[in-house]
Hints:
By secondary structure, chain A is an all-alpha fold. Helices cover 73% and strands 0% of the residues of chain A. Chain B is α+β, with helices and mostly antiparallel strands. In chain B, strands 6, 9, 10 and 11 form a four-stranded antiparallel sheet that branches. In chain B, strands 2-1-3 form a three-stranded parallel sheet. In chain B, strands 4-5 form a two-stranded antiparallel ribbon. Chain A: It is a multi-pass membrane protein. Chain A: Belongs to the binding-protein-dependent transport system permease family.
Amino acid sequence: MTAKRLRIIALLAISTVFLLAWAFPIVWSVLNSLKTDSDVLAYPPKLVFTPTWEAYRDVLFGSGSILPNLLSSVIISVGTTVVTMLMAVPAAYALARLRFRGKKFAGFYVLATQMLPPVGIIIPYFLVLRNIGWIDTYQGIILIYLSFSLPFAIWLLVSYFEDIPFEMEEAAYLDGASRLKTLWRIIIPQVRGGIAVTIVFVFLNAWNEFLFAVVLSGNTVRPVTVAMFNFVSVEQTLWAKLAAVSVLAMLPVVVLGVVAQKHIVKGLTVGAVKGGGRR
Amino acid sequence: MPSFTPTRRTLLKTGTAAAAFATLGPAFLRQAAAQDADLAPYKSAQIDWQQVSGESITVAVIPASYFENLIALAPQFKALTGIDVRFEKIPPAQIRQKSVIDLTSKTGTYATHAADPMYYALYAANKWVEPLDTYLADKSLTDPAWFKFDDIIPAWRSANGIDGKLYGMPYDGEVTIQVYRKDLYDAKGLKPADTLEAYMSNAAALNTPNDRVWGAALRGVAGAGQNMYIYPSIFREFGGDWMKGGKLTVNGPEAEAALAWYVDIMKKYAPTAAANWNWPDIADAFSQGTVASYIDAHSSASVINNPEKSKVIGKVAYARWPKGPSGKRTTSIWNWGFPINSALPEKKRKATWLFIQWAASAETQARTAHKFAGPTKRSGVNRTSVWKDPDYIKLMNGFGENFVEATMSALQEDTDVDWRPRVPQWPAIGDTMATAIQSALSGQATIKAALDDAQRRIEPMMRG
């Protein structure tokens, strides 16, 4: 009994250490976003201080307001997610169920696009967008984001589709349903969890993206990840404001994570017929 | 028009620099535009400012108060020339990358951009930017008597020239100087160092980590513009020469002695974390009273005089770089200059030149500095005449004792064009050296091993 208790204590201690290491940057950001610049630099670091909303007020409503950037981020992320899902669901279904020439190659190709280092393809992307006049436009950035989000979504969804037993589809066909109707009425409801998980990941990837955004965006379309960097100026680092922007940029991610948690868990456990859950 | 009399008080207000323009933005921008709309000083130039009226250009700058002030005056430029300027603010780490992509692809996105002087060798070798001499000499585009090119700080002009041709017009710049806590120095009877040796012993005398005061701090973090901004000065002061027999050489006895001094002072008398510090971190630490002295850009004075966070206001003084064993002082010179993108059609190039001429003119320099209506006044103006203007001097001397003298003598006497190796391969060489320096600073490699390794990596770059 004591050995077991010791084990639990040890496990708890180890997880606490990891949790602290991971939580520290977030706690640091939240605390500093509520401080004045002189409190940020105070030593020893002040744990008790008069919180102020000044940094938030400045970054939201001051002259360097990040509201337009937050809007840019929302448009880009939602746009990328919607287009990705519209194309990924049928594609993943096809790869999981249909037999067609080049299926194996198509499957490999989807994965291979994930292996390219993004840095290597920025310049060609830049040139393509430049030549069609899509630099610093929503359609341009969303198009480029599709290049990584679509393969990723297909790859993730295929495994969910593969887990649905053929019997379910066959039952639907016997009842006279067409393939599309079966997909829409029978299959998709079964992979709801998987689709939710994919949506979350695609959205988060688009929301957090920085590398492509910094090169392909400009004054008109500038997501918050890029705008944030302007608070580290050559003259000084505006710690409190930088922390406030980070917290604001993190919020949607955290909210989405909490909301989607249920689906993520469900997506992993739901099975339509006995033994038909994820293997 | 209300006259502007700078006092210590106004200067302290200016110290809030970037912090303040973010909050006060739109209001003072409008005010600045309305207040100084007088275009007569520009119209006395014997050129047709309106010759390419209707053109529009995009200018990439970094987010910094000295560019914010210029952006605030853009409506005046539009009124003067009929040219639309669209500014794009890009963080310093990305502006090089974005402009190089633009230049290599010849897309002409940025008519001009805030350029790193170390990149002109690369730009010129590829003919990505125009030699500006042709524009300076063209009487229809430039009135030499009005523009007074020679008034622009010579050190920055030569930093932006390759083989005697100018490729970027200096707009704002800096030099590195010694910044020290006069109160601490006085208490121990110390004087600002005249030699690197004295700088080390001053640091030793003031280093009391138990009271949270460290003797000195220099930029330690790896980067072509970070530790490779400070090390080259030390290297040259130790008598180092980048080009030995026509071959780029980064190792050798002078290099070893220089790096040994750098490692020594950082290990013994700087806060441990300083090995990863960049200039804002040094200024933050100094402003909190934890560092007795640093050698860095004169422009950091506005941060350490920012009343919103500094605890050392009124206790700061300045001096030139200490001399090295070679008897030489070598400051690090820097300026943001404006080149002209060669990929532009002729009319846009002319529009770009008019913009550059306007931005670099004595009138605009004054209007963005001591005559600026907003809270931030520039400390990096490009004109000797402005540096001699009593109003400007009075304003700048509010930063602390000996500020203008140290800055001006550094600019005039301590600069050295070959302070860093000016070759097209610089971006890669700068990074390689920065990594080598950091590995020595962190103790991962011995000084000799770090430098030899850098030399081995750099040789193939110079061949290719």
